[in-house]
Amino acid sequence: MASTTLSNQPQTPSNSKARVLFASLVGTTIEFFDFYIYATAAVIIFPHLFFPASTDPTTATIQSLATFAIAFIARPIGAALFGHLGDRIGRKATLVAALLTMGISTVVIGLLPTYGQIGIAAPLLLALCRLGQGLGLGGEWSGAVLLATENAPEGKRAWYGMFPQLGAPLGFILATSSFLILGAVMSEQDFMTWGWRIPFISSALLVIVGLYIRLKLHETPAFQKVLDKQKEVNIPFKIVVTQHFPMLVLGTIAAICTFVVFYLTTVFALNWGTTKLGYARSDFLQLQLVATLCFAAFIPLSAVFAEKFGRKATSIGVCIASALFGLVFSSMLESGSTLMVFLFLCTGLALMGMTYGPIGTVLSEIFPTSIRYTGSALTFNLAGIFGASFAPLIATKLATEYGLYAVGYYLSAASILSLLAFMMIRETKHDDVNNQI
C-alpha cells in the first residue's frame, strides 16, 4: 500500500545534465558577447561617433569609458531587482527576464543615431542603453551560476559552476572576432559609418536561441525545496543586508581582483596599446583574441583545483600570483616586443581564468538557498563597481600621470585586498549548501 501511494505521487521534474550545462553556458555567452562588443566599441568607435568632434581624442575616450562604467553601477541594481525575483518566483523565469533586458538594450544600441545626427541626445541614449545592459547582466550571471550549481551532484559544484563562467571567454572571442572580420571585409569608412552596428543588431539572433533553451528548463531542485516548504523570503535584499552583511562585504572584496585583472588586461591594454604603444587596432585585437584561449583553458583547470584543494586555497593562490603579476605589468607591456606583449596578455588572461572559474561557486555557497540569488548577485556586481567600472579610467589616469608601473601597483593592491577577504571566508567545499534553506 505504501509503495502504491508513493508511486502515485507526482515526481518533481528534473533537468538533464546536458540541458543544464548548455543553458547556463549559452546565456552567459550571449550576455558577455553583448557586454564585450560595447567594451570594444567604447574604445575604438564611440569616442568618434557619440561625442562632439571638437573634443580632443583623450577626453572623448574618457567620456566614452564613463558610459562603459554606467553598466557596472547599474549591475547591483539589477542584482537586487532580479535577485528578488529569483528568490521569490524562481531561477528559470528570472533568467528569461534578465536575458531579454540585456538583449533588447544591445540591439537598440545598434540602431542609435550618432552625435552628428541628433547632438547631445546621442550620448544620453547610449548611456540609457548601457544602463539596460547593466541591469540585465546584474541578474543574468548569478542566475546562470545557480542554475548550474543547484543542479550539480555532490562533489561537482565547482565543476558545474565553471560552465557559465566559460561564457565570458566565449563571448569575448565572438565579440572580438566580429570586429576583426568586419574590419577585414569592409573599408574603414563603411565600418565607422554602419558596419559597427552589425554585432549589436545581430545579437538578437543569439537572444532567441538563448530564450528557446531556457524556456524548456525546470526549476532547480534546491529552490524547488524552498517552494515546497513555502520558505520564500518576502524581501531577500533586506535579509542579505541585515543578517548576512559580513559575507556580503567579504564576498564583494574577494571578487575585486577578478574584475581588475580582466579589465586591465583587455579594455585598458587595448586602449593603451593602440594609442600609446603604436599598435594597429586589428593587430592588438588579434593578440587579445588568441590570448583569450588561455582565459578559456584555465577556467576548467581552476574548477579541478577548487574541487581537489578547496575553493579558498585555490583563490588565495591565484590572488598571490596576480599580485606578483602586477609587479611586472609595466615591464612586459612596455617592453617594445610583440612577443612579450602577447605573453603579457596570455599571463593576465590565464590568471583571470584561474580566479574567475571558482568565484561563482564561492559566492553562491556562502549564502543559503532562500536568498542565494540576491546574495551572490549583489556581491559579484558590487565588486564590479569597485573592481571594473572605473578600472580602465583609473588605469589610464595613473599611466598618464605616473607611468605604467603605477597601473601594475594598482593591480597588486587589488589582489592583496581580495587575498585578505578570501582568508576570512570559510571553506565551503564540504558544505551541504543546497539543504541550507
UniProtKB/TrEMBL annotation:
Protein name (Swiss-Prot/TrEMBL): Major facilitator superfamily (MFS) profile domain-containing protein
Subcellular location, record wording: Cell inner membrane
Superkingdom, taxonomy of origin: Bacteria
Pfam families noted in UniProt: MFS_1, Sugar_tr
PROSITE patterns for the chain: MFS, SUGAR_TRANSPORT_1
Major facilitator superfamily (MFS) profile domain sequence ranges: 20-430
Keyword Ligase set for record: no
UniProtKB keywords: Cell inner membrane, Cell membrane, Membrane, Transmembrane, Transmembrane helix, Transport
One Gene Ontology CC term in the entry: plasma membrane
Membrane protein topology class: Multi-pass membrane protein
Main location: membrane
